[in-house]
Write a structure and sequence with these properties.
heterodimer; A: 283 residues; mainly beta; 32% strand; extended; B: 182 residues; mainly alpha; Rna Polymerase Sigma Factor, Chain: A; Arc Repressor Mutant, subunit A; 2 domains; 9 helices
C-alpha cells in the first residue's frame, strides 16, 4: 500500500467515525463573555489588578536592571516567613521621565542557557473602548479616549518572543491608579523561546509571577497549594519604574497548573493585600 | 474590539466551530472535553484577535492554539485513563454501525501518544501539509513524517479499524462529508 493509499485509508476512518457527529450550537456568547473576562484579567492596567508573567524557559533566577547582579530564585530553599532577599530594596536615581513613557527594562535573568528580559513599553495615545455586541444587539460606535497604552514584552537572547498585548487606560501608572483595596496585583503571560505565535507551545518551561505593591508592603508571602511550600519575597524596584514590585519564578519541572496564595504584609505583619489560590505556573 | 472586528470574529467562529470541535474530539476522545477545548481555544483567539487576524494563516494559528491547549490539558490534568474507553454519549441518534465505528476509532486513537495522535489528526483529518503540521507541533518535517507514519502503522494494526463494519458503510456519505468540510 502506498503512502497515498495509507492516507486515504485513514481519512475514510475519520470520516466514517466522526464525520456525522451532530453539530453543536456555537457558544458564541460564552466565548465572548469569557474572552472579555480574560482580557480584563490581563488588563492589569485598567483594572489595576496585577501581574503574573509566565516565561517559557527554564527560569533560573532574575536580576533587576542596575541591580549590581543581585539574584534570587524561586526555587531557592527559603524558610517560611523569612524574606527571600535580605538586601534592601534597590533604589535608583529619579528618572527624567516621570510618566515612564517608552521602554523600561524591568527584570532579566538566565534561563536554561539563555537570557530572558522583561520590558515595559508605555506610550501616550488614543484608544477605543470595547464596543463588542452580540449578534442581534444594537451596535455602538466606539468611543475614542485619550490615555496611555502599555504592554509588557518578554525577550529571550535579545529577541522578543511574546507580549501581554497592548492595554490602554486613562492613567499612566496602571499599578497605582484605581487599585482595588485588599487585592494584590498580578498578570499572566505565556512565552516560549520562539516568536509569539508559538507562545502557547510545547516549549513552556517555567513561569514568572510579578505584581506591583503599595509603599506599605514589607514582603509578599507565597504559599503553594499543592506542596504547602512557602516563599517570602521582598519588594524590588527598577530604574524608571515608580513603584516596587514582587517577582516569583516557578520552574516548569516543578509542575504545571500550580496554584498559590499570594499575601502582602506590612512591617507589623498585617495583611495589606492578597489573592488566594491563583495559578502561578504555566498551564 | 470595534464593531467591524466583532463581526469578523463572529464570522470566523461561526465558520470554524463545527470542524474545530471534531478535531478536538479526535484529540481528546471525549465530547465534553472537546467542547471545552474548542471553546477555550476560541476564548484565547478572542484575546489575541489582532494577532490572529494579522497572521499569515489564521487557521494555522487556530489549530496551533488548539493543539497547544490540548497539550496543556494533558500536562495539567495528568490524564492517565484510556481516552475513548467509553462509548460516546451523544450517539443515540446514530446507527449502530456509526457508533461502533466511532468507538473503534477513538479506542485506536487512544493508544497513540499525544504528539503522535496530533500528527495523525492534523495530517489526515485536517489534511494539512507536513510543513504546516511541523510548525503547529513545533518540530521538524522529518519528525512529523515519522510520527504520522508510526501512528498510522499502529492504527493499521488495530483490528478494530479493519472489521467488516468499515467495509459495509456507504461511501457516498464520506463524499458528502468531505464536501461539508468547506
Amino acid at each position: 500500500m502506498t503512502g497515498r493509499d495509507e492516507g486515504q485509508w485513514m481519512r475514510e476512518r475519520f470520516e466514517l467515525g466522526i464525520g456525522e457527529l451532530p453539530d453543536i450550537p456555537v457558544p458564541h456568547e460564552a466565548i465572548v463573555r469569557r474572552g472579555r473576562a480574560r482580557r480584563r484579567t490581563r488588563n492589569a492596567v485598567a483594572g489595576s489588578v496585577a501581574s503574573v508573567l509566565v516565561v517559557a524557559g527554564l527560569v533560573a533566577g532574575f536580576t533587576l536592571p542596575g541591580g549590581g547582579g543581585k539574584q534570587t530564585t524561586a526555587t531557592d530553599p527559603i524558610p517560611p516567613s523569612t524574606p527571600a532577599s535580605t538586601a534592601p530594596p534597590q533604589t535608583t536615581p529619579a528618572p527624567p521621565n516621570p510618566l515612564g513613557l517608552g521602554r523600561v527594562a524591568l527584570a532579566s535573568g538566565p534561563m536554561d542557557g539563555h537570557t530572558w528580559e522583561l520590558t515595559r513599553v508605555r506610550t501616550q495615545g488614543e484608544y477605543e473602548e470595547d464596543t463588542y455586541v452580540l449578534p442581534g444587539e444594537p451596535t455602538r460606535a466606539p468611543k475614542k479616549q485619550q490615555g496611555y497604552c502599555e504592554t509588557f514584552e518578554i525577550a529571550v537572547d535579545g529577541r522578543t518572543v511574546g507580549d501581554t498585548g497592548r492595554q490602554c487606560g486613562d492613567a499612566p501608572d496602571w499599578a497605582g491608579a484605581d487599585r482595588v483595596p485588599g487585592q494584590i496585583n498580578f498578570l499572566t503571560v505565556e512565552v516560549d523561546d520562539k516568536p509569539d505565535h508559538t507562545d502557547l507551545g510545547f516549549g513552556t518551561l517555567g513561569a514568572v509571577t510579578w505584581g506591583f505593591v503599595s509603599p506599605d508592603v514589607d514582603n509578599v508571602r507565597v504559599t503553594f497549594k499543592d506542596t504547602g511550600e512557602t516563599k517570602t519575597l521582598a519588594p524590588q524596584s527598577a530604574a524608571g519604574v515608580s513603584e516596587r514590585f514582587y517577582l516569583l519564578t516557578v520552574e516548569h519541572k516543578t509542575g504545571y497548573g500550580r496554584n498559590a496564595d499570594l499575601v502582602a504584609y506590612d512591617a507589623a505583619g498585617n495583611i495589606v493585600a492578597q489573592e488566594l489560590n491563583r495559578q502561578v505556573s504555566a498551564d | 474590539m470595534s464593531p467591524d472586528e466583532a463581526a469578523q470574529f463572529h464570522e470566523f467562529v461561526q465558520a470554524r466551530w463545527a470542524r474545530l470541535v471534531r478535531t478536538a474530539y479526535l484529540l481528546t476522545g471525549d465530547h465534553g472535553e472537546a467542547e471545552d477545548l474548542a471553546q477555550n481555544t476560541l476564548v484565547r483567539v478572542y484575546g489575541a484577535w489582532h494577532r490572529v487576524q494579522s497572521a499569515d494563516s489564521p487557521d494555522a494559528y487556530l489549530r496551533r492554539m488548539l493543539v497547544n491547549a490540548n497539550a496543556a490539558r494533558f500536562r495539567k490534568k495528568r490524564i492517565t485513563q484510556l481516552l475513548g474507553a467509553e462509548a460516546p454519549e451523544r450517539g443515540e441518534a446514530d446507527s449502530a454501525d456509526r457508533i461502533g465505528q466511532r468507538d473503534a476509532l477513538m479506542r485506536a486513537l487512544a493508544q497513540l501518544p499525544p504528539k503522535q495522535r496530533a500528527a495523525v489528526v492534523l495530517r489526515y483529518w485536517d489534511d494539512l501539509p507536513e510543513t504546516e503540521v511541523a510548525e503547529i507541533l513545533g518540530c521538524s518535517v522529518g519528525t512529523v513524517k515519522s510520527q504520522a507514519s508510526k501512528g498510522l502503522a499502529k492504527l493499521r494494526a488495530d483490528p478494530g479499524l479493519d472489521g467488516p463494519q468499515w467495509h459495509s458503510s456507504p461511501h457516498e456519505n464520506s463524499e458528502e462529508l468531505v464536501h461539508d468540510r468547506s
